[in-house]
């Protein structure tokens, strides 16, 4: 299909002169973090005081909107220098100081977001100013600030504002603690080699000793997932699954209950019937009813598939119990799920994950991934030798636009687990790509933080295929951060609707399921051989393995999140157990409390976890409509269109507008449903 004219992949460079400075620094002591936090708060508050104390007749674009936007640019960078180390610093003292800084700054954020004096001047400006005298993005900024002001209740009576402010402060502190508890969790189980039966030798050799004949299994991803998939001792899997879903049970369960109550109170003060409706107003979905319909319809469609898959799993379990002389209890337990889903891949699709990972050494995957992204998006990456970073494992790359040679940004890769480090995979925006006070463009800098399998004395880091997928996914967020060319920090990078934010990176996951890209990022770590054709074909076919159960589980999580944020008094563990049984047909393990470990609920995804499934509608549509037709590796035009239509605007346009430009029409659900192994009903109205 011919790309729409407005999507032409030229003029990607901003007209503004570009400053290539990396303003970030990682050499602060715990004490300096504390001192600089106080300084940053004072500096920023002065700007707000100035804006808020102006006489109304003095209010202008420069004295108000631009002053706030400029302050936001330097504040964001400085704030990240102070609060990012809590997730990655190897020093516990620095992590603690950084968490404390984050708490102080979050409280300060609440204070500034509740400045009625500032809000009144913005409202006044909106009434007075000629809209056409402003650039379109400045109009959007103005409208957004007013919207956010109303969403903070700044148009309501003073005593209501005070209540909202106090709730917001409590909420931000509770969220920080919830995730800190999970990151700092050091629970491990001492297990014997016998108890760890079925796990490969390289995995066992990578474990630390815990006493004479025991090995230390932590609950970090590179231990938890391989164990749940491969350990053939059900009792071990049960113990580990139970411990995993009991992490931080006491403290986080209490926090979660408080979060849910406070969120409901705040939303009600603001005139919304539920917290979900309050949150969703800013998303593509707009209301909790639309989300409920989306999830229910999908659950209904996936139900028969889930039933079939459960039947297959039960058969496998029965056979395994007979083979190993174990009692067959006739049901699927939570600790059986991943084990038998893995068996489905191995037996029905003949994919041997342990053999497969030998073709995915970290170095080869990284090289292939980086080269694919460079070609696709017209970029050039260079490793910066001797860069100052926060840990010896971390690498820094400089990114140029290949056509102009201009630096557009930098990214850090921090790929292996460490004690006290952020436990999932995520992309952190550190320096927003936007205009600075003098009109020059600030380059965007982001960090990808992940917890991939570490190298061992005998072998390099060998990635499971799902780790390769995660790598592609998170790197997609990095590219979104770097390629966006917004004017305002508020619209930089991934600051798009939360139920669209996953779409760009989900779309890039498709590359790890296509033959040519897979060949580019794989090579046997000892022999240097390419993946045998047969194994490659089987891997690609196995994308359909367990789709029903996998997606039903995503629906369970999305519905738990919606349930907690549409009811005033829902018990998280009970709600989870009920939905697991009802939708997945697999009971939650008694005594566990999965929601207490569900970081998204306190990590900015409250009432928005559905966004993972929702944005897949768009990621699949974009992939199948354009890339699959025009080429996943040699589709230079489509890659540049993608960069200019989807990544370049950041949040400066609505997602629906960007999608229409890139697709040449409104989005449809067809490709999404087909990717889940479902039929497409042609009479169905367009999605979302
Ligand atoms: Zn993501």
TrEMBL record:
GO biological process assignments: peptide metabolic process; proteolysis
GO CC list: mitochondrial intermembrane space
Known catalytic reactions: Preferential cleavage of bonds with hydrophobic residues at P1, P2 and P3' and a small residue at P1' in substrates of 5 to 15 residues
Subcellular location: Cytoplasm
Keywords associated with the record: Acetylation, Cytoplasm, Hydrolase, Metal-binding, Metalloprotease, Phosphoprotein, Protease, Zinc
UniProt cofactor(s): Zn(2+)
Assigned EC number: 3.4.24.15
GO molecular function: metal ion binding; metalloendopeptidase activity
Cofactor comment: Binds 1 zinc ion.
Highest taxon above the source species: Eukaryota
Peptidase M3A/M3B catalytic domain residues: 227-676
Subunit and partners: Monomer.
Function: Involved in the metabolism of neuropeptides under 20 amino acid residues long. Involved in cytoplasmic peptide degradation. Able to degrade the amyloid-beta precursor protein and generate amyloidogenic fragments. Also acts as a regulator of cannabinoid signaling pathway by mediating degradation of hemopressin, an antagonist peptide of the cannabinoid receptor CNR1.
Family label: Belongs to the peptidase M3 family.
Protein name (record): Thimet oligopeptidase
Species this protein is from: Panthera pardus (Leopard)
Lineage, highest ranks first: Eukaryota, Metazoa, Chordata, Craniata, Vertebrata
Gene encoding the protein: THOP1
């Amino acid at each position: 299909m011919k790309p729409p004219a407005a999507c032409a992949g030229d003029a990607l460079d901003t007209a503004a002169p570009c400053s290539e400075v990396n303003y970030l620094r990682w050499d602060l002591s715990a004490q300096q973090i504390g001192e600089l936090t106080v300084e940053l708060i004072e500096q920023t508050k002065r700007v707000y005081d100035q804006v808020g104390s102006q006489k109304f007749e003095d209010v202008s674009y420069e004295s108000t909107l631009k002053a706030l936007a400029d302050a936001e640019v330097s504040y964001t960078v400085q704030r990240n220098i102070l609060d990012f180390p809590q997730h990655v610093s190897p020093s516990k003292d620095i992590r603690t100081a950084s968490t404390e800084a984050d708490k102080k700054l979050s409280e300060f954020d609440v204070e500034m977001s509740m400045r009625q004096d500032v809000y009144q001047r913005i409202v006044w400006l909106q009434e007075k100013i000629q809209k056409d005298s402003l650039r379109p993005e400045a109009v959007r900024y103005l409208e957004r600030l007013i919207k956010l002001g109303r969403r903070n209740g700044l148009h309501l009576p003073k005593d209501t504002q005070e209540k909202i402010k106090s709730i917001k402060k409590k909420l931000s502190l509770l969220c920080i603690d919830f995730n800190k508890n999970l990151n700092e969790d050091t629970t491990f189980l001492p297990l014997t080699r016998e108890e760890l039966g079925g796990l490969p030798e390289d995995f066992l050799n990578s474990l630390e000793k815990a006493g004479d004949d025991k090995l230390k299994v932590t609950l970090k991803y590179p231990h938890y997932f391989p164990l749940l998939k491969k350990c053939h001792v059900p009792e071990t899997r049960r113990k580990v699954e139970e411990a995993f879903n009991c992490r931080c049970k006491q403290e986080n369960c209490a926090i979660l209950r408080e979060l849910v109550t406070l969120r409901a109170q705040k939303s009600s003060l603001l005139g919304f019937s539920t917290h979900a409706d309050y949150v969703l107003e800013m998303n593509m979905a707009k209301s909790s009813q639309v989300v409920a319909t989306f999830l229910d319809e999908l659950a209904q469609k996936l139900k028969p598939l889930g039933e079939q898959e459960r039947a297959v799993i039960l058969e496998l379990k029965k056979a395994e119990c007979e083979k190993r002389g174990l009692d067959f209890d006739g049901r699927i337990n939570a600790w059986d799920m991943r084990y038998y889903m893995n068996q489905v891949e191995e037996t029905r699709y003949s994919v041997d994950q342990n053999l497969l990972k030998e073709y995915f050494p970290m170095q080869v995957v990284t090289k292939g991934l980086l080269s694919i992204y460079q070609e696709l998006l017209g970029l050039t990456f260079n490793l910066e030798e001797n860069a100052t970073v926060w840990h010896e494992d971390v690498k820094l790359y400089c990114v140029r636009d290949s056509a102009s040679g201009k630096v557009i940004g930098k990214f850090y890769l921090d790929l292996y687990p460490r004690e006290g480090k952020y436990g999932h995979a995520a992309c952190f925006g550190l320096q927003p790509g936007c205009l600075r006070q003098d009109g020059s463009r600030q380059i965007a800098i982001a960090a990808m933080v992940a917890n991939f399998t570490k190298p061992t004395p005998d072998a390099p880091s060998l990635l499971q295929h799902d780790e390769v997928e995660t790598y592609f996914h998170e790197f997609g967020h990095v590219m979104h951060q770097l390629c966006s060319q917004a004017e305002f920090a508020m619209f930089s990078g991934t600051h798009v609707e939360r139920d669209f934010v996953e779409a760009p990176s989900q779309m890039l996951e498709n590359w790890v399921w296509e033959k040519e890209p897979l060949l580019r990022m794989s090579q046997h770590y000892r022999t240097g051989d390419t993946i045998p054709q047969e194994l490659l074909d089987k891997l690609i076919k196995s994308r359909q393995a367990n789709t029903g159960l996998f997606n039903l589980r995503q629906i369970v999580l999305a519905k738990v999140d919606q349930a907690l944020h549409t009811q005033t008094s829902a018990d998280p563990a009970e709600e989870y157990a009920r939905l697991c049984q009802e939708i997945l047909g697999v009971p939650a393990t008694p005594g566990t409390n999965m929601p207490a470990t569900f970081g998204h609920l306190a990590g900015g995804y409250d009432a928005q976890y559905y966004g993972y499934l929702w944005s897949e509608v768009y990621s699949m549509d974009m992939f199948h409509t354009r890339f699959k037709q025009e080429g996943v590796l040699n589709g230079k035009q489509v890659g540049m269109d993608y960069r200019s239509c989807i990544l370049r605007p950041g949040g400066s346009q609505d997602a629906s507008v960007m999608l229409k430009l890139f697709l040449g029409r409104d989005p449809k659900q067809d490709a999404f449903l087909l990717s889940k192994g479902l039929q497409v009903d042609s009479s169905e109205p367009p999605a979302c």
